[in-house]
């Protein structure tokens, strides 16, 4: 590690600490939300430094994009007099120093634990089985073949969260800040091609490099929420499109289950994909799962069942 990269890493760490502190203790809620979004964007750079660009994209799309949109929408629904919270000195005066001390102890303990992890872990075993998985990237092979059950359950948990949110009642009308931010519609038109191109590239790249369904779905979902903010896809709230929306929401999980049952019939093991069918099966599952994840994020943002 050169002095330049060390200085850059220290600058990143200092920036994260400062932005996190500002997001927690600023009295103006809008400024706190903006600092939180900046914190997540800076965290995406940290993931890039750790050579995890797929996680960096998901961090930027979900942490800064989706979470920022949710918080700004909630802030827009608050009464006009609620834009400022209580002064932080009134409630963190007595515990801020113990909290900082505990955070330092926890970070040191975590660093010590990471250093004691076995190296290289299960990398050798994954490399041995990589050719039979149908893809050439170890992460994709683990997520969609070797440990596909974990990924299947993650998609099921997300779908369950959407069902829980929809059970709360009808969807709220999206708070569209286009009246307060006239440039937002123009920005959405400018970014819309990127929100389609980047997920397509991530799906194609996932077979041999970092990428795949989850980062692609996160980026596509962030673009969809931006369109919801400017009310350009009101079809999601129309009753006649509800069956199509439900079908697309469950498409990823349904195809995942179909592949798993097919593996059970062909090999006798659930989610065991024959080598000859592994590559097209994984590609189909990734496309359907990415689309479902994007729609799940958009459905969670609506905070209720559309067209109800």
From TrEMBL:
Domain MrpA C-terminal/MbhD, residue spans: 15-79
Principal cellular location given in the protein's record: membrane
Domain Na+/H+ antiporter MnhB subunit-related protein: start-end pairs: 187-293
Subcellular location, record wording: Cell membrane
InterPro entries per record: CPA3_antiporter_subunitB, MnhB, MrpA_C/MbhD
A Pfam family: MbhD
Key word Transmembrane present: yes
Membrane topology label: Multi-pass membrane protein
Keyword terms: Cell membrane, Membrane, Transmembrane, Transmembrane helix
Annotated TM spans: 6-25, 32-50, 56-75, 95-112, 152-172, 216-235, 247-274, 280-303
Keyword Transmembrane: yes
Family affiliation: Belongs to the CPA3 antiporters (TC 2.A.63) subunit B family.
Protein's name according to its UniProt entry: DUF4040 domain-containing protein
Organism from which the protein derives: Billgrantia ethanolica
Upper classification of the organism: Bacteria, Pseudomonadati, Pseudomonadota, Gammaproteobacteria, Oceanospirillales
